[in-house]
Each structure stands twice: as structure tokens, then as C-alpha cells.
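Pipeline run #58 for the internal structure catalog. This entry was flagged by the ingest filter as a single-chain record with no existing model, so it goes straight to prediction. Upstream metadata was stripped on purpose; only the residue string is passed forward. Reviewer on rotation: M.T. Logging verbosity set to normal.
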Amino acid sequence: MNKKCHIRISRQDFDRVFNHLYPGDGDEHGAVLLAGISQYKDKFTLHVREVHLAREGTDYVEGKIGYRALHPTFIHKLITRARDEKLAYLAVHNHASDLSVAFSQIDLDSHKRGYPALLQISKGIPVGALVFGRRSIEADVWLANGVRLGLAEAVVVGNTIQRLKPSPAKKVTTVESTYDRQIKMFGKAGQAELANCRVAILGLGGIGSLVAEYLARLGVRHFCLVDDDRIEKSNLSRVVGASMWDARKETAKINIAKRNILRANPRAQIQLIKNDIAKDSVAKELVACDYLFLAADSMRARLVFNALVHQYLIPGVQLGSKIRSSSNGMLVDVMSANRPVRPGIGCLWCNQLIDMNILAKEAKTDEERKAQAYGVEEENPSVISLNAISAAHAVNDFLLDYLNLRPEPELLHYEESHFLNRKIGRVQPRRDIECSECSQEGLRYARGDAVALPCIKG
């Protein structure tokens, strides 16, 4: 199993599995996970959609060869469901180990006896197994072409992000002296995690340009920058790194961000996409990212971002700032927002942050909007200091949560800062249990490549 796969699972599902496997009795227990599948270049990922806990003595019984095994009836019910739903089938059990875990020879022999038949039933959809240690996971995933995959990494996506491997990563001994002061906060291993992280920044205007600057100086090394806009003179007051020369040349915003990133981090690897995130060719480049920063203000961008989080179990945050005035020109509100979105939590649809009417307008050209009396929307007011608060808050949260430096909160909150009345609000996002986007009963959740993203062709 020289080739490796990746697994993504929500915090709520991981906790269900872990608590079932380790109830405190020191014994072995079992479960089955059904997972969506995605493939980006050579990265094969399983996205856990369903958790089925095996009942002791009924679904998980004394084994004829090994210690215990899943009952054939339980297996048959779930492998046929996996086939019908086009989900990968993963049998799960636990060992008493902690930081390192591996299948026993009895486990591997049972896979050789059983998995070829399961692949026939599943009609070639991947089947396999996971074995849990308390702080480790290993996989043996069988593909229809005869390839078997071990585990590169399992990512548990909650408000904080936990990474589990078959055994501890090699100790990091050297890092660049540039990061000495922040290594004192989160260590060399944390700095290495930042260097390996692939982030997408969707929108490189006032907020996105600041996010890019902060992440580059933290030592993030892999960037995917998406924006189809060019700099104008009116943007110079808030886009970091932009110059009058850029305005005269109408430099693409992603190119300004790239230049700024490389000044801070010359070793950064940057993918530039000068295109609309709403196009399917663009969205497909984002599925292998580890974290998404939505700094674009269109409804189409929110629509696709929200789908990526729930369909591929990628953590993200929607950022924004807003200045509202009354009809007589008096300021009504000056605010910045930081809205984390996680698989099944914080959905922008559930919280009415995607407006269908604006989506319909955005689908039309300027000429069509004028002809239908929509007019052409005026740009919203924007001030760099408001953008900086939103960007810095989001990057701080990314740092603390991606490196798992703080406890998992009981509840996720949106945070909004209102500066006229000096109030900071924490809003618990609502959740529609029947939402087609974020609900585990819906059509999109953890489906991976099996469901089309809500994009336009291009």
C-alpha cells in the first residue's frame, strides 16, 4: 500500500464514531462509514457522509477466525446501500493503541478473503477498512483496478481542525529563521503544517489582498488565488500592494497579490485563476484546498463557496464589511463580519445569506439589467481599516483552528463588529435540518465528485 488516500470527516461524525469505539470498556467495537469520493490529479479523497454504528452482539459479533467481526447481514445491508448511493464502503474497528496504529495480519487476511466479493457487489465502487487508535488511523482501501491505498491523513473538520495519521510525522528539526518569533507560539511542527497547507482566497480586493499578505507572512506556502477583476485608480486606497502604475496598466488583482505574497514568502507556490469562481472549471480547482477564504461579495461566489464546504468537507470563512447610510446621508451602520462555515454548520443558505433575487440579477449582463429596469448596481462603500479588521480576525481564527491550538467550542458562532455603537455581536447560525446543501439527508453533503457544483459551464 505505497499509494495513499485522504479522508475528511466532520467533527460531529468523528465524535460519534470515536465514542462508540472507545466507551471506556477497553474492548473492540465496530462501525461502517459510507463516503463520497473525489479525485483531484493524484489526490484521492473520501468524504464521510454516513455513520452506521454496529450494535454489540447483533451487528458486531464473535469472529470465526479473528476476535470479532461485522455480521454478514449488517455488511450486506450497507454494501448494497453504498452501491445504490455510489458511496465508498469503509468497515471500522479499533485497537488499544494510541499514537500509532496498524492492521493485524488477521485483519489483512480477512480483507483478502472478503473485499474482492464486496467490490463485485459494489460494482467497482471502492471498499475498505479503517482501524482506529486513540490518536491515529490507518486505512486499507481497495479500488476496482486492483490498487490498494493506505492512509496519508484523516482530517477531522470542526471549528478546529484535527489531523490523524497512522503514526506520528517525523519531527521537524529545521525551519527558516524568518519565523522564529511565531515558532515560539506554535512550534516547528505548527510552522511545517502552515507550509504544507493549501489555501484558496476567493476575491483579491480590499479584504482578500490583506488575507493574502497575512497568510504569506505566516509562512503559508500554497495559494490558489481567484479573481477576474483588474485594479483601477478607485481601488488604490484599499488593495494592499497596488500602485498608480498598476492602475494605469490595469494590472489583474491576482497578479498584485502574487507579487505581494512573493515579497513576503519567496518560496510560495501560487496558482492564479483570472476567472469567475462560478465557472465549473474554476470551482474544480478548489476541491483539494485545505481552507477557503471567501472575500468576494457576489451571491454567485457565496453559492459556490457554500457548496464546496459541504460537498467536499472543506473548512472556510465568509468575510465582509458593510457601511450603510440613511436617505439623508447619515451613517446607520459600520460593520465587519467574520462568518465561519463548516460541514453541516454555518450554512449560508440556512442563514439567508444567499439572496435568490440578487443571484438572478448577477446572471444577467449589464445591458440586460438596464433593459429590465434593474439598473446597474452602484459599488458599496469600502474602507481599508474595516477590511483589515475582518481579514485579521479571519486569519487569526485560521491560525488557531487549523493548528488546533484551542479547544473545540460547543457551538460555532458568526461574529460581527459594529463600530458606531462599539458592539461586537456573536450570532449562533441557524440550521435547517432539511437543507439540501448542508443536511446529511440532503443531496450535496459529502458527495464529493458525484454531484455537480452549482456552477456555469466554462
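catalog note: Confidence is low (pLDDT under 50) at residues 368-376.
catalog note: The CA atoms of residues 231 and 329 lie 28 Å apart.
status: ready for reviewer M.T.
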